[in-house]
Design a protein that fits this description.
The structure is a homotetramer of 333-residue chains. In chain A, α2 links the parallel β2 and β3. By secondary structure, the first copy, chain A, is of the alpha/beta class. About 4% of the residues of chain A have low confidence. The two termini of chain A are 39 Å apart.
Chain lengths: 333, 333, 333, 333
């Protein structure tokens, strides 16, 4: 298989390394407009051929193309790949708006090719373990999902902190509680330095009394990447900054002795043991590459496909509208 | 000085101990309707006299009364104390609504007596140190305030999680960034178990591009009590679960090389040292008692007075309205 | 039951409070030479009668006496109590040397009264849980025990850091791996400030290829109280500075595929889940008081008795000899 | 410059990558007996030429050779390199005994070539910062050094845990407190699985009332890499498992009001602020490579040279003797 990679910025070396390392991949060709990035990749990966022209790259008849450009260019590059009848891998977030996402989905169906959206976290050992616990009923019914992803990071030119950081957490939520349906989004935040928000808080209401909340922040002195997932049976904390105990499952929960008298009775608490399951440490991107290639070979949709990408973009778009409207709820669908 | 304490529940023993331990206090009289609480206090504090009747207590001519009942009773008890011309200490939150708070303030002015609102955290060494750093200009201008107070706690019968937990954080915010004016509140949340919210998120907009956010939750598997305070010069983390390093001040921040070209230029980051100042460990409640007594003796307003209590109640009231309106912004004043 | 307490220093208020709170105890009498300590206790515990004279106290016909003086006075006070035919509770370490311990044991047997040695940690929920796990075979055979107890603490006048801090850890070890027999002790350390060591390291060799090591230090900038217990099946960490997860049991261990070829084969590791059991939070001292009183009432030896005290003193004595001999092994028995 | 690397095991890829990445290096040739390792390196570094024969490699006239074999082969390979008049880089520990180290030093002097010993930690940002603080007098006079390096790691075939793990910590100690002279070593430990110790504790006595202690363990359920360095003015903790706050300097220390009355006076404690300096994050191995090449170019000794290697080997050798003699002190020199 022959893979063309468009955009060799921050994430580029990881894409080159993981596609090169996959045994089904015979050739990797890279493409970037900046001379510096081409030199950088050449020095580290002498076996990779490189070009400055996307037109050239498209002519090389790769089996699939990877779009790793800024988000506002995803649509136009992916469209040309799809039109040429080839499979496409798009970095997160899938597109800059729902309209683009829907158009690409329709095009891929017409051309009968695959769209893979790189929701990398879905392939981490930790998130797969959480999915396994939730699907296995260990937590009971999920009642809330709370996520914090803050750090002192580089401001993005083209997007606010929501479009930069929240796709990670929204894609994890979408994967983990895939049975729940989001119905409305409220968001608040502030732009302290220029016209893009550097801090934002997003609330997502679901149709079955489930609720999710996301805190994303480029201006936190400390790096926090933590999720709380509350279930009726057990509760889980996922702390991605922890090396050895990323997931902790608490045997503690809420018990109601008498459902009829819930307004009167004191809600009882049971506090028990904590369990921290072993987490597989295979590099997520390498598993993502395998899934993409396997889905092509078998003619099936990949795990993180365009519909998943669209669901995340819908919430991002709604959050942006809500934040402009000072927290007003924006309905989804 | 003679002190009457109304309500000997969870916080009662701490109030009895600290008022008894203050050298200006000669006598403490306790009052509770429940026999069990009276016995509990008698066993631990054999020198304290006790009564089941508030009328009795009011006749005992105490110099000041402490109201430590459920919040919906604060107003009526405090009102009777003020009408009798005595000083009153009210637990947080001050009252169940702004109307009650304003009425008590007017009454106290007419009677020329003091209202102390027990915003205990204001008297902790950590919060006083934060105030000192902020007032000393160490952090620069405050641009955001982010607070998380979650745990697996006892549900309250009478109020939701906002009225139970948020007064702590709102009173800290009000004290620390006293120069900023709140203008609007948005809140979201969910009631998973009965009609009171167990999880809530509150956003507070200020008039000078400052922003605050509060996460309160009774159903978290882990106990987190953490604040991030972002300033233009430095940023601070206050982690109240830490024993020895509650406050960390980060020499890291955001520098903009060229204010004119902010939309084009990449925002630069400077990351430097971290400093954790020593924090005074005197019990906060004992300092609160001293402040209350000193304010009475000197005929001045206490540090945490009824106006501070009112400001917190205004935000609580607005948050409750907003949460019922699915996040719609409620203006303050 | 009537209890006399000799020595009302740092630990005194805890002893007074817990003996007063025990329902079998009708009266507590305290004794200290220092006027200041008597006043301190009187203010907090108005119901306790006090005396400056041990002779007076002994005449008061208490059922049992508690010796909470500096360690060099344990022997003489305990001896007079035993001679008077009363039960005695001695703070840790039991005595200043093995000779004194043996003499007190013989005297107690002659007088048919109980000696309780206050190895408080044995009564903590965490240590009892560890004992339960070890006795239940969960860890397999114990192969090592590693303990660190360091802090920036008050230097003691009368003893070095070994006699001050190590009794805690030695008594935990003795309780947890009671089936193992210590055969030799090596110790190293340094006295940086005056003639008593402020840092010390103690190695204890056991008769069955088990090994223990203790690090005690008065001059550490941070407070660490941590034990590692290695078993052939599982390994355990006990971190007493943790609030909610004091004990962690690791499903990780060492597996040897082929015992014959152990010198050639790479030792295999299996790394699995971690489990943190719930720990009972009842105050240890209150359980110790109950055990003491129950042992008296039932005419049986208490859980932490004079023989346990003697075992700890033997190791302390050997460690002190070894440290003077620059680490030379001192045999036990 | 042309570099030959002997031994392409665990550390091999890092050596190949860092030597290849240095701008003074034009060619890197690798050598290993195992076909698998050669294939592994070829796949990742297609530009590197490889050979199975050390004789071949020696004929290729490299400017310098890197010896990254098991420790028992360091001496013979390094000797042949030195005899051929070329510079040599030897992995830690330098040699298997002091005799070998001395012989190599003499040979290097005769041939006028450099020996670099890869004490990698000396080149980490954290250790360089600690050195800077100690040399700048910030900590005062160093009174103790306490190090813990434990994990659940791979057993080594050829050496015990002391030779495997302690060289890291001994080389850090030697670098940080270079002015102090070690005079004696005591060691204790246990071999639970076969004839090599898996747990060991090493005490090092210095000539000026300074003391160091090292805990190394292959059978700990948790990974701990922590050093405490106590000075008369300040104390420092270096926790290498921390991502953002590896070094913490405590403003706390010990003050003696009256040096004459030290036996009587209670030693006073002052507890103050904590400061965590920023640490440079450049990869240590890349700085080591630069230092090696610069020392060759300038005809000077490298920072971590054969004398430093010898000092570490002396302590390792003494520790091994002491552990066989159950803790008996072994004098150095």
């Amino acid at each position: 298989m022959k893979i063309g990679i468009v955009g060799l910025g921050y994430w580029g070396p990881n894409l080159v390394r993981n596609f090169s390392g996959n045994e089904s991949v015979k050739e990797v060709i890279g493409c970037d407009l900046q001379e510096g990035r081409l030199k950088f990749i050449q020095a580290r990966f002498p076996h990779v051929s490189l070009t400055k022209s996307f037109d050239d790259l498209l002519k090389q008849n790769c089996d699939a193309y990877v779009i790793a450009t800024p988000v506002d260019l995803h649509y136009s590059f992916a469209k040309r790949v799809l039109e040429s009848g080839r499979h496409v891998w798009v970095e997160k977030p899938f597109t800059a708006n729902t309209k683009q996402a829907i158009e690409l989905i329709e095009l891929s169906e017409k051309k009968n090719v695959n769209i893979f959206v790189d929701h990398t976290f879905v392939y981490t050992g930790a998130v797969r373990k959480i999915k396994e616990l939730v699907d296995g009923g260990k937590l009971g019914d999920i009642i809330y999902f709370d996520s914090v992803r803050v750090n002192l990071g580089l401001f993005q030119h083209d997007v606010n902190v929501i479009w930069d950081l929240a796709p990670h957490d929204l894609s994890i939520m979408d994967y983990v509680i895939s049975g729940k349906k989001a119905i409305g989004v409220c968001a608040n935040g502030i732009a302290n330095f220029y016209n893009h928000e550097n801090i934002a808080y997003i609330s997502v209401y679901f149709d079955n009394n489930c609720f999710a909340h996301f805190h994303v922040n480029w201006t936190s002195p400390v790096k926090i990447r933590r999720m709380l997932i509350g279930g009726t049976k057990k509760m889980l904390m996922f702390d991605d900054m922890e090396n050895s105990e990323k997931i902790k499952v608490y045997d503690s929960g809420i018990e109601m002795n008498n459902k009829e008298k819930i307004n009167e009775a004191l809600v009882q608490y049971r506090i028990g043991d904590m369990h921290s399951p072993k987490v597989n440490q295979t590099e997520a991107l390498s598993l993502g590459v395998s899934e993409f290639i396997d889905s092509i070979n078998k003619g099936r949709k990949p795990l993180t496909n365009a519909e998943d990408g669209l669901k995340v973009v819908k919430i991002l778009e709604a959050a942006e509208k809500s934040i402009k409207a000072k927290g007003k709820m924006i309905e989804i669908n």
